[in-house]
Every structure is written in structure tokens, then in C-alpha cells.
Amino acid sequence: MNLKHSKQRDSIKEFLATRKDHPTADTVYMNVRQSFPNISLGTVYRNLTLLADIGEIARLRVGDGVDHFDYDTTPHYHFVCTECGAVLDLDMTVIDHMTKTARENFDGEIEGQVTWFYGRCSNCINQTAI
């Protein structure tokens, strides 16, 4: 896809590249606004959607009603904290055979899979211990 260059879009990608916490569009907006005070929330949403649609970033829908965005588009797993809502990368090997196994007994076309791990993050566990 041949996109017209956009400093705002570059700023969104640069911000996401510095984050491992999978921010929402609102968080991206609040931070990009520091460099582009006149940028609108709609512009941020449109650019995030475009970047996700063309595969330059990943859109995560973890069940909390908002989209989270990830600069890392390589296959990896995520952990969702059921207490604070944090979305974190899990450092583990991707289990490729799950998709292959699912395809064996399915009369359709499976293109991939998403796996979420849920529980309480270390911050929430440590808060409870205090």
C-alpha cells in the first residue's frame, strides 16, 4: 500500500514502539498530543485503524470493551490482569501446533488463533500483600 507520508502517523508509531503495555487509543492520543497539540482523537483513531488494517501494528480486543494497540506484530501471547486490566506480553514460545491440530477436525478454514492468559499481575498481587 502506497500511503501519503504523515508526521502524525509516524508519531503514533514512534510512541507505540516505546510501549509494552498495549495502550488504548485514548492513551495514544494524550501522548501524541504533546507533539501535535491540534491533533484530534478521531485522527488518532483513524490512523490506528489504518496501521492495524495494513499490519504495521496489532489491534488487541481483550474483552474490556476498548481496543489496545501493540507495535509488536510478531506472533506472541498476552496476559490480561482481571484486577487492573493491564495487558502484558508473555515471554514464552508460541505453540504453532495448536492451529494445525484445530484444522485437522474442522470443516472450514482456520487462518490463525489468539490465546489470552488471565489472572492477576504482579503489581496487583503485591498491592494486596501490603
Fold topology:
Blueprint: H1 7-17, H2 25-32, H3 41-53, E1 58-61, E2 67-70, E3 77-81, E4 87-90, H4 97-104, E5 116-119, H5 122-129
Parallel strand pairs: 3-5
Antiparallel strand pairs: 1-2, 3-4
Helix pairs in contact: 1-2, 2-3
Total E-strand runs: 5
Order of helices and strands: HHHEEEEHEH
**Integer average pLDDT:** 92
Main β-sheet, spatial strand arrangement: 4-3-5
Main β sheet profile: 3 strands, mixed
* C-alpha-based Rg, rounded: 17 Å
Find the structural class using helix and strand composition: alpha+beta
Estimate what percentage of residues fall within beta strands: 15-25%
Q: What's the N-to-C terminus distance? A: 52 Å
The tally of helices reads 5
Q: Could you say which overall geometry the principal axes of the C-alpha atoms support? A: flat
Relative helix content: 25-40%
Task: Please explain how this structure is put together.
By secondary structure, the chain is of the alpha+beta class. It is 37% helix and 16% strand. It is built from five helices and five strands; from the N terminus they run H-H-H-E-E-E-E-H-E-H. It has helices at residues 7-17, 25-32, 41-53, 97-104, 122-129, and strands at residues 58-61, 67-70, 77-81, 87-90, 116-119. The strands form two sheets. It has a three-stranded mixed β-sheet with strand order 4-3-5, with no helix packed on it. A hairpin with a 5-residue loop joins strand 3 (77-81) and strand 4 (87-90). The longest helix has 13 residues, at 41-53. It is flat and about 50 Å long.
Provide a compact summary of the structure.
The chain is of the alpha+beta class and 130 residues long. The chain has five helices and five strands, in the order αααββββαβα.
